[in-house]
Amino acid sequence: MDTLELLRINLLSPAVLAFALGLTATLVKSDLKIPDALYTTLSIYLLLAIGLKGGAALSTTPFAELWKPALATLVLSVLTPLLSYAVLRQIGRFDVVNAAAIAAHYGSVSAVTFIAATTFMQAAGQPVEGFMPTLVAILEVPAIVIALLIARRSLGEGSLGEAVREIFAGRSILLLVGGSVMGFLAGPEGLKQIAPVFVDPFRGVLVLFLLELGMVAAKRLRDLRTVGFFLIGFGIVMPLVQGALGVWFGSLAGMSVGGAMVLGTMAASASYIAAPAAVRIALPQANPSYYLTASLGITFPFNLTLGIPIYFALSRWLHGGS
């Protein structure tokens, strides 16, 4: 299967088509709307399902297989926010607050992009290491903390402790970590008991969730005129750079083609759940139009449509495939 075929499969997948439908619905000013309560329920379901499946897989994974990928992820969590911050300050000429706020988003992880990458791997018939949800938690938190520390060191203000508490208490980390613990303790046999709810319907629920995200992303597209050409370019080029680093680190850590690709996608993604909540508390003076439009309006659709097949092609090349 060549890269163009992978791209075709990804663009015509139900998840990506649902995202495009959501975009279209908003652009044509349709009355289509998913109730807020249902959107919240879907996000809770997806995060908990990921944690449960990851925890169950982790319970059967020897530590010897985990420590290298975990170490590679930890290095990425330090490197990616520093890299984003340096580019935004030195090339983009952003001020300290907005550079740190955007860096926190690009060092952190988009859980939905992670789900889309693992779903794409399933469609491509490539196995992925079962402990990947654990790596999401490892990558998520340190990256946000480092970006906020940069801002605090420069400004000497903002409540870092409250921001860290917000990260851990926020639903994305709470459900991922909590679900992983539940899955780890219950094991594969326990997961089988709830598979009709948390395993089998997973892809269908993802389609509904991406329909809503398409509508949300379309609303952020209206802000593209205000964020400037540099940030638009940053939202496309930085995922490619960080995605390549993630794939490379995953390959060095001995991960499979699918695992290295998913790690690269995680590094390439930009958070729009945990990071905005933390930045809102620690850096209230940061402009949401910058970090939300870049992460949700530019990087998310790019990764969903073009980025994922590119990272997969890069992972196959690094592993000696064509």
Overall mean confidence score, pLDDT: 85
As residue ranges, the low-confidence spans are none
The global form is globular
**Rg over CA atoms:** 18 Å
**Biggest sheet: strands, sense, closure?**
none
Q: Element order, helices and strands?
A: HHHHHHHHHHHHHHH
Terminal CA distance reads 9 Å
What's the total number of strands?
0
- The number of helical elements comes to 15
Strand coverage percent: under 5%
SS-based structural class?
A: mainly alpha
Helix content: over 70%
Write structural notes for this entry.
- The chain has helices at residues 3-11, 14-27, 36-58, 63-90, 96-107, 111-124, 132-155, 160-169, 171-198, 202-221, 224-227, 229-252, 257-268, 274-282, 288-318.
- The chain has 322 residues and is mostly helical.
- Helix 4 (63-90) packs parallel to helix 7 and helix 4 (63-90) packs antiparallel against helix 12 (229-252).
- The model has no long low-confidence stretch (mean pLDDT 85).
Provide tags for this entry.
single chain, 322 residues, mainly alpha, globular
Short structural summary:
The chain is mostly helical and 322 residues long.
Write the layout of secondary structure elements.
Layout: H1 3-11, H2 14-27, H3 36-58, H4 63-90, H5 96-107, H6 111-124, H7 132-155, H8 160-169, H9 171-198, H10 202-221, H11 224-227, H12 229-252, H13 257-268, H14 274-282, H15 288-318
Helix pairs in contact: 1-15, 2-10, 3-9, 3-10, 4-5, 4-7, 4-12, 5-7, 5-15, 6-13, 6-15, 7-8, 7-9, 7-13, 8-14, 10-15, 12-13, 12-15, 13-15
